[in-house]
Amino acid sequence: MSAEAMIELRSLHKTFGTGAEEVRAVEGVDLKISPREIVAFIGPSGCGKSTLLNMIAGLYEATAGEVYYNGREVTDVNTNVGYMTQKDNLLPWRNVLDNVALPLEINGWSRERRYEAARAMIAHVGLDGFEDKYSSELSGGMRKRACLARMLLYGPQALLLDEPFAALDAQLRIAMHELLLRLWQENQQTIVLVTHDLVEAITLADRVVVFTKRPARVAFEQAIDLPRPRDVQAVRFTKHFQRLYDTIWQRLREEYVEEKL
Amino acid sequence: MKSIRFALVAVLSAMVMCTAAAAQEAVKIVNIGHGYFSGPLYVAVREGIFKKHGLDAEVITVKGGALAFQAVFTEEADFGILSYEHVLTAAAQGRNIVSIFNIADRPLNNVVADNELLEANKDKSLAERVRALKGHRVGTPSAGGSGEKMLRVLAREYGLTLPGDVELAYLGGDPAAYVGAFRGDVVDAAMPFEPAGVLLEQEGLGGTLINIMSGEVEAFRDLIFMTVATYPGMLEKNPELVKKVVAAFLEAQTVLLDPERGKAIMAAEFPKLTPEANDRAYETVRQIWTEDGRMTLEGAKKVYDYLQPEGTATIDYEATFTNAYLPE
Amino acid sequence: MTVRLDTDQEGRAVRSRKRAARRSAAEIGTPAMAVLQVAFGVLILVVWQLAAGRLVDEFMVSNPLAVISRLWEWIASGTIWIHVWATVYATLVGFAIGAAAGVVGGVWLGLSPFLSRLLNPYIWAFNALPKVALAPLFILWFGLDINSKIALAAVLVVFLVFVSTFSGVREVDRDLTDSLRLMGASRSQILFKVVLPSATSWIFVGLKTSVPYALIGTIIGEMIAANRGLGYLVQLAGSEFDTAGVFAALVVISVLAVIFNEIVGSVQLRMEGWKVVGR
Predict the structure, then answer these.
(1) Which domains does chain C have, with CATH numbers?
(2) What are phi and psi of B193, to 5 degrees?
(3) Model pTM score
(4) Is the CA virtual torsion C100, C104, C110, C114 positive or negative?
(5) What is the CATH number of domain B111-220?
(6) Which residues of C touch B179 (CB under 8 A)?
(7) CATH says B2-106+222-319 is which class?
(8) Which residues on C lie below 8 Å from A57 (Cβ)?
(9) Does A123 lie at the interface with C, CB-CB under 8 angstroms?
């Protein structure tokens, strides 16, 4: 891993609203993410993980501190990242092909070229045959694949994933994990994954960062030294995995318990 | 040779027709509703009299005298069929338009009453008939409108207190409303615009109690009443057009007054009236159509007397009407 | 005890039969429904015909046969078409202008929080005005000709379309626009690729609702100052006590309204085909 960070958060603060309605979402986060690293953010809900992603994406402006992407400060919408949320943001009035080709359309590619590229990506994620379907005709898993295809089509160097698979059932989720890792092996993007699911975090990530409850600060980081490539189905049952799980869960629980009080 | 001659004639006649058509001056005239009183207008259109005087007339029907006044005053229309009452009312507010031809010299209203009142006052004098309205409900077109004002004049003259002695109801300008009102027994008497009275008689609901249109009441004869009016600018910029329009109306009026022709033309204009109803309407309204379209200062003042329009401007009567465009 | 059980069972049987009847009544197939609709219409006409002259004064309501014969008269003599065309033309142009202005205004204000807050009270105040009261004013401003009818139609349409468009634009999913921003889309790309398609169904609601109002605006304008048009016919017939004529003109107006509605509906269907496709 190179010493130069792909994504760097420096003394990051974010506050919403003013006065009595003030909400401090993020308070003093310092973090460095290397290229090709998969990092999982985990913590109690509402603690500000999504806010952090939005700041890396440039959708929110920092109240204090900076976000650096590939060496440059993020001040505006960061079009170099791919973003995927729990909700699929497919345009319901377009079919799969037009949805997937959308980023290329925005960047002025001709219809022929962008359809060609889109079709290739659709096949790559296993959705071939469904190009002319609308999202209302697709199952949840298929829609996720379409979102993945769209996100990857313009070849971003980093992917921000905000609980993308939370709405899927367990089997489907495993299939998605396999797909994601396969694609990552091919393209070697930097991935920041926000999740509630500790199993998912450990399965996929090189490093798990535990955040405190709101306002978010880094509570604890754990390197995941499970060997790659990982068998998504089997790895969770290994002893190594279990040890990592217990370590992180201990710390994580503290954040949750505090919240309950 | 023959074919060349034929072609020449054809071309020449086409040119003549084109120039004749080009010589047709376009003129926009507004009419208030589809009133029976606008007889000369319908005659002029139907008998090609406008065309004959070199006029290409477009007639637009507007709802209400106020709208007609507005159209003429803003020069949106060139000429309008307008009640002289509107001309005076506007003049009292400092807005001037000019009547150039008098279509009718008496009001369009009669006092009509239901059969009961009619029977009870069959051969009574005018004064008695007016007083017979005491304690009854009377319909007029609008609050403070000319119908109500005329009623006041009658009341004042013949010993009735208004409102007090009479309950007033406002039924609007459409004759249909009066038929409905009598049918529903909403009023016992009314002062509608004709041919409401004719229609009431036709429906067997009542008849004319006081025949203003026949000239029974002195205060309501020899007036300037329903006129063709235009805006002052027109008189300045195109007096020739004004002359043509007046000439057309005069000719149409003459045709209209001829019972043989007039009746038939009005029947064609109002196809939904039964022949009997049309006859009655024609005979009734014919009483008020003028012979020659002339207007008098006396007539103007008489209207002022009963109308009493509100306004601060002093009225220069001479500026509100003119006979100058009538042929000598 | 046994007796009570029996009656309860009976009651339940009756209720369930009723429920079944209601369900099947609602689920009648389309062709059968069409037949019923026609039959219903015929029934109304028959009742009207019988009531006229007997229960209600014919002067007030005329009768269907007279209305049909007046209509036929107009069609056969060809006189109706100039009036139909005048009304249709003014309605279409007024609708087009009002719809365009409403959509543009709705999108513009929907996208600009500042402007929409600034203009909010004025818009609602104007919306509350009975716009037909503007009719004489419009005659003053736009003249006696067709322009005043077009203007009246347009002003009635513009508010309805504006309000729906505005809501539709505001309802656009933020996440969708954000994802496009991340793809590097410009503001106009976002407008045309997300905002407008997303707001389309709202816009169509506005358009469909406003079609009859475009017609109403035109008709009112024709009733107060015109020399052609269906409103003019209504006024003319009314002034001559031709109740059959009034109804005949109203029939033509209703037919036009239905036709316009169908047209907008089919355009909507074509543009929103993706909605119908479902699982």
Answers:
(1) 67-276 (1.10.3720.10)
(2) -80, 140
(3) 0.76
(4) negative
(5) 3.40.190.10
(6) 59, 241
(7) alpha beta
(8) 182
(9) no
